[in-house]
Design a protein that fits this description.
This protein is 8% helix and 40% strand. By secondary structure, the chain is mainly beta.
Length: 760
């Protein structure tokens, strides 16, 4: 949120308080290790595996790493041995300056599960710096009437080492008039003071030269020297006095260059040159001399460089006021740098896991650390991510956070997440830092292939060519990679007797279906089977669909005549009485067609007749009937050729021959037609003679019997009456002659035709 009342979108926020914790995790106390500065790189510091109670293998498995507060890689963890070693030489003065002790804080991060262990490394000082005076020569003006015991402050030397390795005492030579007293200040610094032991006489000696030596407490000790030039002055009985011996001021760190920090003021009761005061820094380090400027006449202290609270939070200035007579006074200025919110929060990613598998419960995605170099509210932070993302921020030890998934992710809905982590401090105005991370979601085989249709209906005309492409099935898989690669296959048919593998095949890559051989509609009208689609995931998922193949009929079967039979034996002859009326049913041609639909629609027509116009064929049922009355002039024998034709394209046909014999009555003997009779064989003479003799004897016998019967009948008649021969009474047998015109056959016959459909 920025100043001005603007509101941020609602976000999950977690307040970070940088509080020093005595215990990072239960059972682990913050450990302190120590090492001497300037120790060689690669030197052993400690065995963390032993201190943590873990094996080196577990350290490596949990991804242990060392993170320092300033992100400098000064330490390194050997995951093979668990040893903590130096990654570089450490310079205590560079790391901590005058701060003592010099402690470097670091954390040991463990994952799976998360663990953060705090530790400290104490960098011990060695005596590697000698004391140095800010000036090679100091000049003091001392009144000749100064009483013995008078103390004159001297500029102190500077030693970058700390503790016993810092300056411990001062001495001076020769000691004819003075000795040096070492004074301890409240801040722990030691200042030399020159103490007058013997009165001075300007007329006897107007100038003295002394050697001031500063000694540290190292082993062996180091020293630094400076020359002290003493000018013996005439009497000036009033030294300058400051209005305050201590000035305390606060300066915001964002103050511009040239800002007035403080104005010191001193007065001198003397007159003339002895009352003229000039100001100067009594002691000025390099940091002070490059940051502040002192006006020697007005006593104004101004900035000549920008302040930085995070680098130096306070300054101590010693200001000297000297009059023209050589007397001086001293005051101190304590400058406190006030922090302003000029540092944005920092975010450091310690670990990031990407991609992460879908459908998994809570997974640690990232671990990161936040930091703000400001102090107070300026250094307190909140951390948040957008609410519409399936992730959560969990605060960990101290200023560490873990980013975890909030439930299982679905790659098919979202395969990539761009997560903006926002860290905002509580200063005025508020500053924020945004860090974006990209998390990819890896695929898990959680979607079975899905067919575009639950069932497919394909049509193929019979008598197809082998390997004909008859159609395709298609399935898609919402997964990715190998999990989305679909393989098609034929599933075993429910009817174990159906030779599916010899009828149909499927392309495993694209789902195209092929007929392996020519199909026959008359043998197989429809074919149902199931196809499967299987992905290449682990474990593989599959689905199935029903495929129905309908075989379309082709006109590939000619009509087949069931009656009359055409089997090459003696032909069937139909008898028709000459008394038959028009429409008399002579016979019926019965035929079937193995095809279906219009390919099986049969029509009949009279193709050829011995006497056209005498007989007719009904086109739809094949009945052969007389077309007119018969007469004596009509030939007795007739041959009819009936054509049976289907309605296919092109049409196919068959023909059948009928033999019709016209008779006066059904007692007339049947005379075979000469066309149906086989050619007479050439009889030999002996056979002919035998036949003639047999016929003669038979005729004579028959004639004798008939004559005998006639004579007997005539005698019986004369005996009964004198009338002529009478015709016997009674009904003439109806089965011999039928002239009723009902159209029935003179010789009754029946036929039955059974057509059974073939279902496969």
């Amino acid at each position: 949120m920025e100043a001005g009342g603007k509101r941020l979108p609602k976000q999950r926020q977690v307040l970070i308080f940088f509080l020093l914790m005595g215990v990072a995790l239960a059972g682990w106390e913050s450990r302190r290790y120590s090492v001497m500065e300037e120790t060689e790189s690669g030197s052993f510091v400690a065995n963390l595996a032993k201190d943590l109670g873990l094996g080196a293998e577990e350290l490596a498995a949990r991804g242990a790493q060392v993170v320092s507060e300033d992100n400098e890689p000064r330490l390194q963890l050997d995951l093979k041995t668990g040893d903590l070693i130096l990654n570089e030489k450490l310079d205590r003065e560079e790391m901590c300056g005058p701060t003592n002790p010099c402690v470097m804080h670091f954390q040991v991060l463990l994952k799976k599960p998360l663990g953060v262990f705090r530790a400290e490394l104490l960098v011990r000082d060695i005596n590697d710096h000698s004391p140095e005076f800010p000036e090679r020569e100091m000049t003091l003006k001392i009144l000749e009437n100064s009483a013995p015991g008078t103390v004159f402050p001297l500029k102190k030397a500077q030693d970058l080492d700390v503790g016993n390795n810092n300056i411990q005492n001062y001495n001076i030579s020769p000691k004819s008039h003075f000795h040096v007293s070492t004074r301890n200040r409240g801040d722990g610094r030691k200042y030399p003071e020159l103490v007058l032991d013997k009165e001075l006489d300007r007329e006897e000696q107007a100038e003295l030269r002394l050697t001031l030596t500063a000694l540290d407490g190292g082993s062996p000790p180091r020293s630094g020297t400076a020359q002290v030039r003493i000018l013996v002055m005439d009497v000036n009985d009033n030294a300058p006095e400051f209005e305050q011996t201590l000035y305390q001021v606060q300066v915001p760190e964002n103050s511009p260059v040239g800002t007035l920090v403080v104005k010191v003021s001193a007065r001198d009761l003397d007159t003339g040159t002895n009352g003229e005061i000039s100001y100067s820094f009594f002691y000025s380090s390099q940091e002070i001399s490059t940051t502040f400027e002192l006006n020697s006449l007005s006593g104004e202290v101004r900035l000549i460089k920008k302040l930085d609270f995070e680098t130096v939070s306070s300054y101590e200035l010693d200001i000297d006021a000297s009059d023209g007579g050589g007397l001086s006074g001293k005051c101190s200025v304590s400058i406190e740098v006030v922090d302003v919110n000029d540092n944005s929060p920092e975010l450091t990613i310690s670990s990031l896991t990407s991609p992460i598998p879908e459908n998994s419960p809570e997974i640690e995605v990232a671990m990161f650390r936040t930091r703000d170099r400001d102090s107070g509210d300026n250094g307190r932070m909140t951390c948040s991510i957008p609410d519409d993302l399936p992730f959560l921020l969990k605060p960990s030890a101290e200023n560490f956070y873990t980013l975890v998934t909030n439930g299982a992710l679905d790659r098919e809905k979202e395969s990539e997440y761009n997560i903006a982590i926002t860290v905002t401090d509580l200063g005025t105005p508020r500053l924020k830092t945004q860090h974006n991370i990209t998390v990819l979601v890896s695929d898990v085989n959680d979607n079975a292939p899905a067919f575009t249709q639950t069932s497919y209906t394909l049509f193929v005309r019979e008598n197809n060519s082998p390997a004909l492409h008859i159609g395709s099935v298609s399935a898609t898989d919402r997964d990715a990679g190998a999990n989305a690669q679909v393989t098609y296959s034929l599933l075993p048919p429910q009817d174990p007797h159906l030779p599916l593998a010899s009828l149909v095949s499927i392309n495993a890559d694209n789902g195209q279906l092929f007929a392996l051989r020519a199909l026959d509609y008359e043998a197989l009208q429809a074919l149902e089977f199931r196809v499967g689609a299987t992905d290449r995931g682990s474990p593989a998922l599959s689905s199935e669909a029903l495929v129905r193949v309908l075989v379309l009929d082709a006109n590939d079967n000619s009509p087949f005549v069931l009656y009359p039979l055409q089997n090459g034996s003696a032909p069937c002859t139909e008898l028709v009485p000459r008394a038959a009326e028009p429409g008399y049913l002579v016979s019926k041609v019965v035929a079937v067609d193995g095809d279906s639909g219009q390919n099986a629609w049969l029509s009949y027509q009279l193709l050829k007749a011995t006497e056209p116009g005498l007989f007719g064929v009904w086109a739809h049922n094949g009945e052969v009937r007389t077309a007119r009355l018969l007469s004596e002039r009509d030939a007795a024998k007739h041959r009819l050729v009936v054509l049976v034709k289907d309605n296919g394209e092109p049409p196919l046909s068959a023909s059948v021959t009928l033999h019709v014999l016209l008779v006066d009555g059904f007692s007339q003997p049947y005379l075979p037609l000469p066309e149906a009779a086989s050619d007479p064989a050439q009889a030999d003479p002996l056979t002919v003679y035998l036949v003639i003799a047999l016929a003669s004897v038979s005729s004579l016998f028959l004639f004798s019997v008939l004559a005998f019967i006639a004579v007997r009948l005539c005698r019986r008649g004369r005996a009964a009456s004198l009338g002529g021969c009478s015709v016997p009474e009674g009904h003439f047998p109806g089965h011999l002659v039928d002239v009723s015109g009902t159209g029935t056959l003179s010789q009754s016959y029946q036929y039955e035709h059974f057509v059974k459909p073939h279902v496969f």
